[in-house]
Amino acid sequence: MEFNKKVYDDLNIGEDILSMENITKIYGNGFVANKNVNFTIRKGEIHGLVGENGAGKTTLMKVLFGQEIPEEGRILLAGREVNISNPLIALEYGIGMVHQHFMLIESLSVAENMVLGSEPVKGIAFDYDEAVHRTKEVSKKFDLDVNPKAIIRDLSVGYKQRVEILKMLLHGAQILLLDEPTAVLTPQETRELFIQLKQLREKGYSIVFISHKLNEVKEICDRITVLRGGESVSTTDTATVSEQDISKMMVGRDVFLNIEKKKSNPGKPVLSVSNLSYKNKFGLYAFKDLNFTIRSGEILGVAGVEGNGQSELANVLAGLEPIQDGDIKVNGRSIKGMNIRQIREEGVAVIHEDRMTYGTSATQSIAENVISDRYYKEEYKKNGFINWEYVVSKSKELIQNYLIKADGYDAEIRTLSGGNIQKVVAAREFTSKLKLLIASQPTRGIDVGAQELIRKKMIKLRDEENTATLLFSADLSELLNGSDGIIVMYGGKITAYFPDASLVNEEILGEYMLGLKSQSSEEIGGVVHE
Amino acid sequence: MSKKEKVKTTKQIEGMFSIIRTLLAVTIALIFAFFLISTVSDNPIKDFSTLLIGPLANTGRMITVVSKMIPLLFTGVAVSLIYSAGQINIAAEGAFFAGAVASTVVAIIEGIPAPIHIILSLLAGAVTGAIVMGIPAIMNVRYNVVTIVSSLMMNYVALYGGLYIILNPLRDPSAGFEASFSFAKSAILPRILGNDRLHIGLLIGLAVVIFGSILLYKRPFGYSIRTVGANKRFAIYSGIPVDKTIVLTSLLSGAIAGMGGSVETLGNYSRFVYSGFTNHGWDGIMLAVLCRNNPKTIPFAAFFLAYLKTSADSLNLTSKIPPEIISVIQAIIIIFIAAEKLLSKWEHKKIVANSQKVMAVEKGD
Amino acid sequence: MLDYIFSLDFVYAVIRMGTPLLFVGMAAVIGAKADILCIAYEGMMLFAALGGVVGSAYSQSLFVGMIIGLLCGLVIAIIFAYFVLYLDTKPLLTGLALNTLGTGGTVYVVYLLTGMKLDTSSLHSLRFPAVHIPIIKDIPIIGGLISGHNLLSYIAFIMVIVVWYLVFRTRLGLRIRAVGENPGAAASVGINVKRTKFLAMMISGLIASMGGLFMSMAYMPYFTNNMTAGRGFIGIAAQNLGRGNPFFTMIYTLIFGAAMAIGNTAQAYRLPSQFASMMPYLITLIGLVIIGSRNKKTKN
């Protein structure tokens, strides 16, 4: 069927512009990401799509943008059924997506990125002036200021996002899909984005706003749709529900994945970080003058908007990046100048936020993956050879204890699901005779069962082995529920310390995470123990 | 038959398809070979059968096959090691050549008792080969230089550097052609099995194969090599000394290739005779691909390749077919075996069907 | 030795040695921009060299010979691109296999056509002419420098500008850079990534084939066994040293050309020729280390 974007003009504000009916998406490894999802957007609204990690938000949007083909269901645009088999068709239908990872070519200019895919030409040459002209025009039309000749790699994250949104508008998008747009933004950038989005709404554009930050959703969205476990739970007017109501819908019960844990009984400091600073490759401080300690038997959570120095801190603690300035002591011994093996031998275990690149080796077996930090030790050797019999029996034990679903100990990691891969990582790191655990996003994007198992194991480590844990998580419920104390990182600094996580909530943390508030240095200094 | 036996693991299915792909590649290559032969030959059927079974005609030819297989054992294992570590180092060719040159330098000295002379000559080849392959590795680790380019350049440096030594200080003016002085009798490799064309290099080569497969799959260092090759960042994160592993593996691989050059020279010739690359290094790459970097199967693949080469030679004697037909066959085999997506749809279907079967069985339990 | 380096003969020799390298270097620039690790240029050049000779010998037309030569090289480029892009074959192995095919396959064809394995000197193939530019050729010094080179050498230098224009000034070039740098982003705005890379590889193959033609129809009057002798690889190295910039790449190909030219005359100066032959490769290695250590400094 021939489709013309003009049909959108005939719609009135508030009429349904797009509806997805009974969408079911099953991935190649059998994971059901969307199950009979129904989702409707009206013309001229900002529609929040909320849900926990792994609830199926991104998948649903990818289906809409033609990047995933659903097994069942249909999509209607202005009442006409359409088949969106690739992004080009989505763009033709006026659907534009702004991904979490920007789809920009870093070495090209703003104008070149804007017109990529529908470039103006003059003879055989690319018409750069026309590209600049078009960029200026669309920039003016939407009141989004960009410099057409700036090179993408020189721009800030917020600026890049603006380019992405403009790019989609230039390609004729009427329906904008924004996948967690605020996760990477500073509070100022977020405020600016909201102003821009509201302007677009007034012009009759429809926007899908994916987030799990409820305050933001509450602030900007007209309606919200909640996804849970791949299913659509409900769609309501934002005005009629409280954040509490939304969170209940998101998790399906009153409390967040609540794992019972006793009050902690902290002992001596295991990790002491003093005056630690780190400059990234551009010479900018990722974090500066950090001071904190974690005591044995204590879980210290780190809250913060992505990009405030958490990843760099985790990498420095793991030995993946050098200690440039300041010091890190583990059980009183400085790890400065140690290689990763030496650091691990001091009892440091690491769950890296990127489990496929760092946490595991996809083409090696489970057995080979669980011995990567210990294969050289006497325990695993016999006469100078690896004692494979022992390795296999150990692996089988771990597979059993960590409920890893796989063909067997010799199954390659790439054949496992995300949750099971993370269980393999946990199985190795949690059995490494650890004193200190650096856990970055340990349950991100994995199924609820695996989440629960990993969280329980972390608390068990704390209680039975007195492990000290530094827990980085973008999931505030995980932090509030899983940590004993919490620090907040903002702009590369610690801006708050809460000794008792049970006395804080998401709103309080949010204010510090967004940099609206900051504690006194005495309060923050409480995180340093002798 | 019980339910359990019916279901396979994904790994088994993938293994099956890798065998099917290999057979398919060989079949396509042979069909192509038949086509090529028929363009030149007056009697393509006869010539094609010479290609297939020529070496079986007499024991002399079979001995040629085994003798041609010896250097391939070395380069095959050498490349398997370095590729297991994920390093695209293609200096095995240069290491082989340099090894031959270095052992020539030692082998022309008179007056060293036989066993010591042989050991010294082989050692010289191994050390030189290690240097040739080690330099690109060190350049990569220290200066982040792309190994494929630097190792390529290294091949030529080894080639011309080696030729310089052979054709200048070591050139025998009385030879009547461009060659080095003759080797001392004490440096020539002893014969085995009472045949004057089979030398002890065969045993050394087989020992290298055993050494390589034990190292890679049984020793902790081999685990480091394979892990670095499978996912370097995972290896770093796990605390495996990655740079050290890369450099040591390159040195070891170069030493094996270099020793291969020594063995081939001291086993078959009375003086240094090469005037250019011998292609044994490139053949080693093909063998490693065929064997998926597992030294254990290198002897079979090496035998296969040596067999083809012998066929081509005998074809060249009995017909008009140029022996270069082997390069064509080799190229086709490599390219089809390495084509990962070949038959992938069929393979994927099998895996999906199998997963469903597994689910059904699990339900049944 | 120095008097040679400052002589006109040397300039001619550098350009003669540099021309095939320049073509491959430009081919490699396009391959690199599309982020394709292609080492199959040797194979493409050999087939093009042979195709040109055979085509021109049988048609007695330089143009027909050139077209057939280019098509032969193109076929190898297409096989490479198809296997790498659509069958997921590792580019290194594909390149290796096609180079092997180039060395062996061409000899096979030579034998098929001439009954000899060494070269095609028995075929009466044509050569590209030298160009004497009117007026300029009469200007002292400059005339000698600029005029009188082979037609393909001029084309090689023009090719630098063409490649620069293609990569940095055309729509296709923009798309090639986009798919090379961030294929996901390119795909998200509807660019067909594989098709774009395929096209880039075809262009790259055609340019490399020009280098092959030069070898058998200008550098030498006939095709000989493995006559490219690693030039395909040197072109890749030049691209690497020139960091993908056509003009820097050109400079490095000329440096290699100079080293080869010196090598060719070294014997006359009682220098071992092997040292001279080794020079371009040694220079590359040293160059790579210098560039590498400089990058390391800027990184820290």
TrEMBL record, chain B:
Assigned keywords, A-Z: Cell membrane, Membrane, Transmembrane, Transmembrane helix
Coiled-coil regions listed in the entry: none
Localization of this protein: Cell membrane
Main location: membrane
GO CC annotation: plasma membrane
Molecular function per GO: transmembrane transporter activity
Its membrane topology: Multi-pass membrane protein
TM ranges: 20-40, 60-83, 90-109, 115-138, 145-167, 198-217
Keyword Transmembrane helix: yes
The keyword Transmembrane belongs to this UniProt entry's keyword annotation: yes
Record's protein name: ABC transporter permease
Record organism: Paratissierella segnis
From TrEMBL, chain C:
Keywords: Cell membrane, Membrane, Transmembrane, Transmembrane helix
UniProt GO molecular function: transmembrane transporter activity
Predominant location category: membrane
Origin: domain of life: Bacteria
Membrane topology annotation: Multi-pass membrane protein
InterPro entries per record: ABC_transp_permease
Gene Ontology CC: plasma membrane
Compartments (UniProt record): Cell membrane
Transmembrane segments: 12-32, 39-58, 64-85, 92-113, 151-168, 198-224, 244-263, 275-293
A Pfam family this chain is assigned to: BPD_transp_2
Keyword Cell membrane on entry: yes
Name recorded for this polypeptide: ABC transporter permease
UniProt organism field: Paratissierella segnis
High-level lineage: Bacteria, Bacillati, Bacillota, Tissierellia, Tissierellales
